[in-house]
Structures are given as structure tokens and as C-alpha cells.
Amino acid sequence: MHSSRGEIEDPNLDELYRVGTVVTILKRLELADGSQSIIVHGLTRFGIEELVQTDPYLIAKANPRDDSYVESTRIDALIETAKRLAERVIGLTPGVPEEALTILNNISKPGALADFLAANLSLGLTQKQELLETFDISARLEKINAALASQLQILELSNKIHNQVKSQIDKSQREYYLHEQLQAIQKELGYVDGREAEVQRLREAVEKAKMPEVVLKEANREMDRLARMNQASPEYSGIVDFLEWLCELPWSIATEDNLDIPRAEEILNEDHYDLEKVKKRILEFLAVRKLNPSGRGSILCFAGPPGVGKTSLGQSVARAMGRKFIRMSVGGMRDEAELRGHRRTYIGSIPGRLIQEIRKAGSNNPVLMIDEVDKIGSDAARGDPASALLEVLDPAQNSTFQDHYLGVPFDLSNVMFICTANYMEMVPPALKDRMEVIDIAGYTKLDKLWIAKKYLVPRRMKDCGIAEGGVTFEDDAIELIIDSYTAEAGVRNLEREIGAICRGIAALIAQDKRSPKKINVGEVVKFLGATKHEHDVALRTSTPGVVTGLAWTPVGGVLLFVEATAMEGRGTLQLTGQLGDVMRESVHAALSLLRNTAKKYGIDPQRILKEDIHVHVPAGAIPKDGPSAGIAMFTALVSLLTHRPCRSDVAMTGEVTLRGLVLPIGGLKEKALAAHYAGIKTVIIPDRNLKDLAEIPEEIRKQIKFVPVKNVDEVLAAALRPERDKKKKSAANKKRSAKSKTSASKKRKKARKS
């Protein structure tokens, strides 16, 4: 092995070439000056992996590298060319013994031929080392041929000069000498070549980046490799890209936090209406950060239907803290490398999305919003991005996050992560465990009215180029849009409909036509057309066997109508409406309970066995499933078989057991909002869900009566119209009949007297 710098007496591993030759010592000679010389025979190449001893001498762990090749026409051609050039070189070189040609012709292996010629060519140490590190036989022979051709040119030129008085130097040699002279002149004038300039630029950038020690060590190692590397090498551009990524990352750049709690509260109230629970939690987070700046805060996750302001809340948090805001959606992400980057061994590899976004932010403590964590995918061949997020979102691990491309740790503990999701059930349990979930169920009608007046109308008018105050929306008009043109938990469609009206007004103004200055109910119908949603609960539940249930969906709560009918048959049960396994089991459980308690409700058990029952949930194109429709199924069956219609202003949610108990459910706030939109006045809920009423806005609690129930008897008492209504009508009919008979009798007596 040779030291890369000959003047170093005791080199270390970085100052040695990594590739050398295994040799056998043939003879040792004692020279007159006291030094020693040895004659060796080369055996094979080897590469150093690591040093295992440095004192008193170096011992390294190495791997031998034998030559391997596949015979081909190209190899044969390169061998033939090398031998022909070598013969000409030997012929022009004085003092070469005749045995050299014999040895040359007796070498049959291409690798041995290349090594023999390399050892006897007049090459510098760097060129010989380059040939030693060229493992590919074909490439090594090509370099040998190029060196032979160059040496042959020099020998021919020298021979020509020797034989002639005036020498003629060919164009290539003249350019070579001129280039060397030009480099010397540039060096005297202070100019440097392109590679040296780039290396110098990168060294300055590395120093300016103020990297951590472990990262700086890796950057300097790559800089040393770059300084020794030829610009034509394929690795050259890859190392330059890697160093530029390291220099551009904000290792030591951070924005200063503004932890003024009253100001943060003012910003949150300015940007968002209501959401008091969410705002309170954010202010608590900021207060903890103010009292303990070095503490590791929790990861917040805003969960709720679309359009309720989850992403904009993250922007408000960043604005309140004075931090940069970046957003990264992981919905549909199936490749782990998208998050953690590709390794540098692949051509065109780059860092993952996290490092890319932090570089764009320009600071190491931004607010990073990870959207749609419930829609993240996985692939058996490309890894699991959700598992990769575990390290990112764990405060105990993310201080040493390693991107596959960088290969060095980047501290993510200063980043404030905020996640969003529509449906937390789809989030992997391990990932959910690392987050503090804050539910944002949706807005009431009054909330939407104020949001529209304060935010949506001004924003849409500005987008459409309508002057501020040029058009006003009446409250009745906005309420009509909320009730009859949208059906959502958020305000995205509401903003869309308001935008449609503003565009219509802008079109009239642009055509110099008369445009309304005030939008009332009539103008809404004129611009938006016929209403899209009708509240026909009373019409649909006027028939026995139809019950209004409540369901939860990722986009908010919805009304779920359950219809049951009976016909002559053999006691079979038919289910339609794309019901999932859980809802099918609820229907079967409700029917079994009814068969067991039929006499209790005045139903002939034999009738159930002689009639086929069909249970249908309308909107058959939409898949439905969930464990909260049990009492609705049971009530529909009892209503059908007792001919007692369900009250039109009642909706219900809850699961039923075979013993008739009502089990608790989830998503009560979303379901209450759906009932509120539909004009429902009474909602039957499980008794064990009473604690969840505190999350429901006071406005809804005042307008809706919540009836807690423990068993199905209490459900039927609250939901079905009482049988005494029929008795009262029958008694009233008898009374009217008796009254009419008495009146007729008096008239006859009076007539007889007269």
C-alpha cells in the first residue's frame, strides 16, 4: 500500500489508498547506505474494510479481489491491440532485453497482461493506482492501451527528433504542452480551474452551514473524495448533489417563537369561529411551551369530517407562534421511500418528502401538518409508510431521524407536528398511540350562518372582484342555502354555493347589466335553481314500519331510514340496501328478540312464522355498516307488526342485545348535528352516552330533547305513537253517534207534541 501523501510518516486509514496488492517477498537486499530493498511477486488485489490495529504498526481487515471475466471478441481484440502496441514500444525503447517480448507473448490471461504492462510503463503513481483500482478487465485493458498509445507517441516523437534536426510535434501533443503552460499562467495570475472552484465553493458552504459534528465529519469525508476524483467520474455529480443537500438544510437556522398567549388567542378567534375545545387545547400547548421551551410536546391530531377547518387551524397555529408552515399530504402514499428517501446507491436518488419540505421551510422548527393520515397506504414490496411515520411522530425518537439518502441524523424534535384525519378507525393503532386526538365534529346551523357572514361571503366576493359592501346577503338567504342546498358537517359546499352566487353577480356586472345589491331568498333560488335537499322525515315515517335512525360517516352524521314490510310466506327474513355484516347481525338480533317477546307487545308469535319480513335501508347504492342501528331495526319491526307508526320528530341511535338492553355508541355529536339539520325534536340515545352530551353545543341541547334509554321497552315508549290515540278516536266517534241519536229523538218528540 502507498500513502496518498508521500511525506506522511505514520499515515492513518483516510491517508492510505484503499486498494492494494497482496505480494510474496522473493528476496531482501541490504544496500550500501544501510537501507533495505525487497523483490516481491504480486498475487492478487485486495481492498481495506477497516483498521483493526494501529500500534505499533497498522493491521487492517481486507477482502481479496480476484480477476474474473467472460471471454469475448472484445477482450480478444483488446489483448491483441495491447500486445501489438507493447511490441512497438519495446522496439523503440533502448536497453530493453529480448526476453521481454517472450514473456509478453507467453502471458495468456488478460488481467495478468494488463498488470505486467502497467508495472513496466512509465506512469505516475496516481495513474498506476487508478489501474490497480480498475477491477473490470475490459476497462483496465482500455486504459493500458491508451497509456501504451500515449507512450508510443512520445517515443515516436522522440525518435523523430533524434533523427531529424527540426521536430514536428503533432497537434495533440502541442495542445497538451500549451494546456500545461496555460495552467501555469492561470496559477500565477490567481485563476483556478472549474473543479477547484467548485470544491472551494462547497468547502465554504459546508463551513457556513454550521452542521453538527457527526454531519460535518461526513461532509468533510465526501469533500476529500471529491477533491481526489476526476470530473468525468460518474460519482462526481452524485457527491456534489449530496453536499449541496447537506449545505442547504437548516441545521442551525430556527425562527424565534412568539409565545404571547393573548395574541395567539386573538389570532385563533380571528381565523376561526367556535371550536372552543380545539382553541383551548392549542393555547394550553403554547403555554406549556412558554414555561418549558425544552420540553417535548405531544403530537396533535385534528379528526373530523371535511370542511371543518382542520388544515387552516394548523396555519393559524403557525401564524400565532411566528413559525414557518409547511403541509405534507400522505393520502395514498404507498412507498416508504417517499417519506424516508432513496439510498444513494440508486441513480437519481433524492431525500424523502420530510427533508424536502424542511429544506423549503428554511428553518428546523416549522409547523409541519401531515394531512390525511387515515388514508395512508402500504405495499408489500415498497414498505409501509405508516410504520415509517412512527419514528417521525415519536418525541423520544425523532431527534435522530435518518433519511436514507442523507445517511446522517437530522433533529426533528423542534418541529411541531400536527396531523389531520377524517376517520380515526383507519389509523394504525401504533400510530394513533403517538398522537393526541382532538375531535372536530362539525358546525351547527347558527355556526354556519356566522361563518358565512364573517368569512365565506367576504372571501368569495373578493375572489370574484366584487367591491366590499357592494352586495349583502340576508340571513334568511344564507339559512336557505344551509338547509336546502347543502348537507354537510363542514362549510366547504356552503362556500361553493355562495361562490356560485357571487360569480353570477360578477357576470352581470361585467356585462353592464342590472345586478342585485341584496341577496334574499328569491335571489338564491334564481341563481342556484331548485333546492337540492328536502326534509321529508314526517312524510317518510307516517307509515308503520318506518323508523328514523342516525348514522356516523367520515363526512359527518346522516339520517338513516329503516323500512320494514311483511307479506305472506314462510317466516323468512330478506335484507336489502347494501348492509354490512354488522348491520345484518343487528337485524337478526332484533328479530330474535321480537320473537321471544312478541306476546309482550300484543303480537301473535305464529304470525311472525307465517309472514316473510323484508327490511330495507334506502339509498341502496351506498354501502352501510355500523353497530348503532339495532334499536332502529327493532322499533321498525314492532311498528310494522303492531301497526303503530313512529313519531315523525323522533330519531334514534343505539345497539340492541338479545336481552333487550341498549348498548352505547360513538359519534353522538355528529349524529346530533344531523338530527338538528333535519328538524328532529327528540333523539333517543343509550343511557350510557349521557356523559357525551357535554360535547354537544348548547344551541342543539336547547332545541333537541335527548331521551336516555336502558332497554327496548323505553325505546318503544318514546318512539311509537301510543295505542290510546285509537281508543280516543273510537270513543269520540261513539260519543258523536250517541249525541246525534239524542238530537234526532228530541226532534221526533217535539214533532209529536205539535
Overview of the molecule:
The protein has 754 residues and is an alpha/beta fold. It folds into 7 domains: 53 residues, Roll (Archaeosine Trna-guanine Transglycosylase, Chain: A, domain 4), CATH 2.30.130; 95 residues, Methane Monooxygenase Hydroxylase, Chain G, domain 1 (Up-down Bundle); 55 residues; 179 residues, Rossmann fold (3-Layer(aba) Sandwich), CATH 3.40.50.300; 83 residues, Helicase, Ruva Protein, domain 3, CATH 1.10.8.60; 186 residues, Ribosomal Protein S5, domain 2; 28 residues. It has 28 helices and 21 strands. The strands form 7 sheets. A 5-stranded parallel beta sheet has the order 5-6-9-4-10, with helices on both faces. Strands 13-14-16-15 form a 4-stranded mixed beta sheet. It has a 3-stranded antiparallel beta sheet with strand order 1-2-3, with no helix packed on it. Strand 20, helix 26 and strand 21 form a beta-alpha-beta unit. Helix 8 runs antiparallel to helix 9, helix 10 packs antiparallel against helix 12 and helix 17 runs parallel beside helix 19. The N and C termini lie far apart (149 Å). The relative contact order is 0.05.
Entry summary:
The protein is an alpha/beta fold.
Largest sheet: 5 strands, parallel
The shape, in one word, is elongated
Assembly context of the chains = single chain
Low-confidence parts lasting 5 or more residues at pLDDT below 50?
725-730
Content-based structural category: alpha/beta
Per DSSP E runs of 2 or more residues, the count of β-strands stands at: 21
Tell me the CATH architecture of the largest domain.
Answer: 2-Layer Sandwich
| Mean of residue pLDDT values | 83
CATH topology of the largest domain: Ribosomal Protein S5, domain 2
The N- to C-terminal Cα distance equals 149 Å
